[in-house]
Amino acid sequence: MKQPFLTTVLCSAFGLLGLTGGVLADSIRRYECTIDGTDREPVGDRNGHIIVSLQYTCRIADGLLKDAGITAISVSEWDNEKGRYLASLDVHRALEGYAVGQLLEGDGSSVMEENRTAGIAASGKTVFKFASGSLAALSGKTVKFTTKPAVGSRRFEMEFSDWPEAAQPK
């Protein structure tokens, strides 16, 4: 497994809790994410079976919540081109608000372009175990997430759907 593939895996690993673009009124939130650190450990029972841990940060690119962001860590198990997320914890920050999300479930797969791994596509669900201030509406809520590779190494896009309307800017 090559380092770019691992980086992509990790990016999508907790791409779970990051998105790209701006905040939309239709309960979708998008972030641009960067992988800050990765670690890959072979399990040792068969080729291509690895555990990947990933640290990443995400920012909303523009709009009313331009400075909102996420700091996260994710752990996933990969069997060649297919992955399953085992754990993820993310801290969401916004003007006068914080929220902490925890992975409920997630799966990923490699995205191939021109016979090489271009990144990871992932999807799943996360639940907010804590939320306060401007993000208080997230407390106890479950949201869906998807990730996809972005242009540039160590980058991915994350999108959350089912984002509570009350947590959107007015």
What would you note in describing this structure?
With 170 residues, this protein is mainly beta. It has one domain. The protein is 6% helix and 59% strand. It has 1 helix and 8 strands. The chain has one helix spanning 3-13; strands spanning 28-42, 49-59, 69-79, 82-94, 97-113, 116-133, 142-149, 155-161. An 8-stranded antiparallel barrel has the order 1-2-3-4-5-6-7-8. The longest helix is centred in the first third of the chain and has 11 residues, at 3-13. The chain is globular. The model is unreliable at 1-25 (pLDDT under 50).
List key phrases describing it.
170 residues; mainly beta; eight-stranded antiparallel barrel; 8 strands; disordered N terminus
Helix-strand pattern:
HEEEEEEEE
Query: Total domains, how many?
Result: 1
Say what oligomer this is.
single chain
End-to-end CA span? 46 Å
- Give the C-alpha Rg: 15 Å
Question: From the helix content, strand content and strand pairing, which structural class follows?
Answer: mainly beta
Beta content comes to over 45%
Shape: globular
Poorly predicted ranges (pLDDT <50, ≥5 residues)?
Answer: 1-25
How are the strands of the biggest sheet laid out side by side? Answer: 1-2-3-4-5-6-7-8
